[in-house]
Amino acid sequence: MALIVTDLAFAHPGAEPLYRAANLHVEAGTVVGLTGASGTGKSTLGALVAGDLRPRSGKITIDGRPLPRRGFRPVQLIHQHPEHAVNPRSRMRSVLNESHRPSPETLERVGIRREWLDRFPEELSGGELQRFCIARALRPDTRYLVADEMTTMFDAITQAQIWHTLLGIVRDRGLGLLVISHEQALLDRICDEQLPIDRLRNPHPAT
Amino acid sequence: MTTDMTPPLLSLDDLSVGFTRYTGVARTRTVTGVTSLSLDIAPGEILAVIGASGSGKTLLAQAILGILPANATVSGRITFDGTPLDERRLRKLRGREISYIPQSVNNLDPLMTVGKQVRIGLDPPTAREWQRALFSRYGLADDVARRYPFQLSGGMLRRVLFATSVRDTVRLVIADEPTPGLHADAVAEVLRHLRELAEGGASVLLITHDIFAATAIARRVAVMHEGALRTVEAASAFTGDGDDLEHPFARALWRALPQNQFSPGSEPWRSS
Amino acid sequence: MSATVKPRRRAALIRSLVLTGVLVGAILAGSVLLDDSALTSSIESRLLPPGLDHPFGTDHLGRDMFTRVVKGLALSLAIGVATALISTAISTVLGIAAALSARWFDNAVSWLIDLFIGIPHLIFMILIAFTVGGGIPGIMLGVATTHWMALALLVRADTKQLRDADFVKVSRGLGRSPWFIASRHILPLASPQLVVGFVLMFPHVVLHEAALTFLGFGFSPQTPAIGILLSEGMPHILSGKWWLAVFPGLALLLVVLCFARLGDQLRARFDPRTANG
Q: Pfam families of this UniProt entry (chain A) (predicted)?
């Protein structure tokens, strides 16, 4: 049971290839960190794994099956800016229900208060919105999560709270988690294993 | 240094920033950005302001510089060198006595040689000489002056950015998040340049989300959260378990860092 | 979507909203309240110049021009609203569909837009109105099918931008259909643009409707449409009966300018980038 990326190649239109033959393995139930400075293609890899971008060639399999092109994807991406990841005109209840109807226990565990459900996104703080994005991504059939700079915009307290919440759920459900961050201390704290982005971009360094 | 005895160079008194926003076709609502903030900075002092995005720390800088968006309303008093800082005075001081180091090297003009950009605002007869001196101070070769921003590396551009804001007349430097996503070496270099400015007598207001950058050079650290100034702490108190920190929010913030205990704390810390 | 609040601009917008509202309200109220008896012919009161009894004068059959103008405007407004709604609907459906569908469909819509922009307006309208057989349906169809292109281009561009928004990507990853994305995510966020487009389109629609009628491709001469009034009045200008053409013309101009101004101000409110001034 794993998310496996094999020989993945990708280039943004009109640009040099970003990945030529990248390989990645995220075992279910583990937390893998992807490290590297900003602007080196970490987010692009996250979007590829989550199916938001289509690779030029290569294979992405989820527990042995190819990543579906249509319909629900069992790899869900949690974005850096939660305020961009929810429709500003939707109440939070329908933001959640676009995915599923989380049980009251799940909502409580993620830290969502009942009265927030009737609010609009601009009436919530970034940290509160991000909890909705997490709850939305946690469908029963979700197998893997990609957290792309998920708490970069928040203060340290909010960051610690959100990570404690998410890591608990991820462990209980046996989900695989790919963490993209430029913050080394955070990755050191939460990851079972870490992978520098350079190793994906140049699998066979010329040394 | 007994900054408590000298009068402050910059003094913010009950400063608030609000925004008018549309909520309907023509209906509007006021949103607060900064709530009644009071803060002093002494001559030659490095004061760090830390906070997450949305904490109001950048609005604070924009309010001092008078570069807030058009729909912002400011109340409270800003005093510079004992005199209120109004728009007319600001126009005279900006770039001469008050200078701004923006977050991104994208703020440089891509169509102008960097030498020319550094010479802006310098006295014409001595401008070239000054620019050469600034370049050597920041380790930039003379021929760099004739190049355009796209021909320089990120590190060189950041030094150019410093050179554009350093004038011998400068008394207050406001650096807004000058170390975003930089490597440790680059961060150290930026901080060293800021410290040099303070040693030259200028006050430095360092706005950052990075507690470690703040405590590395500042003596005092102002902690902002959701538009309010929660506390001003001694930089030296950010150590160990943070037991020396006075305000519980500062303690919680320090202990929540992944470098420390990564503790989620117990209080929600929500003002509204 | 939320533009910067500029107090002076906001005040101007409110003034325009009130002014247009009052004008439309007055026309509608007038058309209901004014007595139809003023429209019966009477030999003794024919071709009277403007006066206390007949503020806009009377026509060659002795009918009160003020009543005719008000009722004509009301009819024009009603037809204009219906026509602009049809046109806005075409823009919305084609614009969103083009941006969300396969590339060949997008290209086909672009080609259609270019085609319609390329053909002279009036000729096309006359052709369509003529084919349908004139009358109200002919006018509405002719005008509606020639006014949707500019708004369709805007909607298409907006949708393309929204298509790449994070919340739309999330929606797709959750397996939501293009139909769901269009109705739940695109339409609510594009709606200010649609309202602006509608209001800006409206004066054009009313003018072209009047023009078609004026040229004789519209209503039967019995209909009190503003275009009919104008075409009847024009020959009389030379014989000194100026009020027959001037008052209907000025009234039409007032309505059209009012809406054009409101449209510009709404555009400045919702999309300050494309607005000038």
A: ABC_tran (PF00005)
